[in-house]
Write a structure and sequence with these properties.
Layout (H helix, E strand, L loop, with lengths): L15 H12 L3 H4 L1 H8 L2 H28 L6 H9 L1 H34 L7 H4 L12 H20 L1 H28 L5 H5 L12 H19 L15 H30 L2 H10 L5 H10 L3 H33 L18 H17 L2 H29 L14 H20 L1 H12 L2 H11 L8
Helix pairs in contact: 1-9, 1-12, 1-15, 3-4, 3-11, 3-13, 4-11, 4-12, 4-17, 4-18, 5-6, 5-17, 6-8, 6-15, 6-16, 6-17, 6-19, 8-9, 8-15, 8-16, 9-12, 9-15, 14-15, 15-16, 17-18, 17-19, 18-19
Length: 478
Amino acid sequence: MQDKASGIGLSKSFGLKMAIIIVVSAIVGSGVFKKAAPMAELLHAPWLVVLAWLLAGVIILFGILSIAELSTLFPSSGGPFLWLEKIYGKALSFFYGWSCFTVIQTAAIASVAFVFAGALDTFIALPRLSAAYESVHFIGLYPFKNIGAKIAASLLIIALTIVNIRGAKKGGNISLLFTLVILLAIIAIVFIAFFGSKGSIQNLESASVHFPAGGFSIFGFVSAMVLAMRAAFWGYEGWIALGFIGEEIKDPKRNLPQALIIGISIVILVYLLVNSAYFFVMPIDEMVAGVQQNENSIAAVLVVDRMLGDGGAYIISGMILASTFGCTNATILVSARIYYAMAQKGLFFERAALTHPGNKTPHYALIYQCIWACLLVFSGSFDFLTDLVVISGFIFFGLIVWGVVRLRRTMKDIPRGFKTPLYPFVPVVFVAFCFVLIVISFIESPYKSMIGLGLILSGLPFYWYWNKKSKKVPASSA
């Protein structure tokens, strides 16, 4: 896809190795450190928490096996945006891209950057304003609360945006460095946990005192497991990211599906090992009680403190700094390609269709994304935003994967570089789970769900304007 104004396209910067790194770094953020305790509160048994991570990973793997087929059919930047256009038409693809800009991708950037700032506070005391200023609010938002962390998060987003404007390969190299650091650190935690003196297999085998005396009912188990898996999905957030940069992957028909499958397999294995290590070292009730005593406590910090003493807080905070830095960078890198692709179609701010003449990066798309993500940082509603990311995202994920089934009928004669294995079982199971997750979310959290739907539909006037405007302009050869 070439720049409409200058004829300059995006550079093919990523081979198979870097594509795998982007997949892993876009996924591994704060979830692997934070979600064990809330999942334990739902399931009351270490082996069930590990099972929830595995099942969530399998569902995500089913999604990846499905989008791998789409990525080889349409290996262009913007990925899901263009896939949805081919499958359902440009209206639905626009609303996906718009929701990525308003909440799905930018809220993920804002949330992960804020976790980075929270970890930074362990090493450097970030400033805060007086209680009078922090209490200032507008429609339920507190823009001046925890101001130091918000400034640090915004500066991180701005700095990484500049790096990615200077070149996609530079951004990819940063992801490579920090992904290797965090994977080595996680491996070290697993090794110390299982081969040190602090752990016990009894901890891993012992259920909570709150485990139902007669066991879960079928409905109770399914409900608890689905909610625990929803928590785990934040840990897997970013799994669809590689589809956004298909145009920049070398030999995409071979490298895209391989990178997707290898990348998610690495993440699943890492998550299973590290969560098993947590419960091997710390009894489940002790972990939950420790987190409940202080809402800012993180399960991983408690475990590492148990293994290494009080210095563990600095070690784990350093790991969180590395993982969230890499994850923020990878999400910034891939997400801007959506708005670049939208602008190429005349369905976003016009300048977002331009690429930098020297660096061959979508610099205006990166700048727009940076501005909105920083505004979301100052909204202050981070937990709220992460819930919206999952709810809004899975509406479109289900539609995207169902597109594999639809295209098998409407484009059955077109050669496919990769075919989803165990078709149609794999895409149908994924779509069915998306439906269940969305229904449960609307029942359990109707306000959040309606806000998510509202943010998606806020694109209506923009679509009307840009669609009307694009009809007056001859179609681009791109």
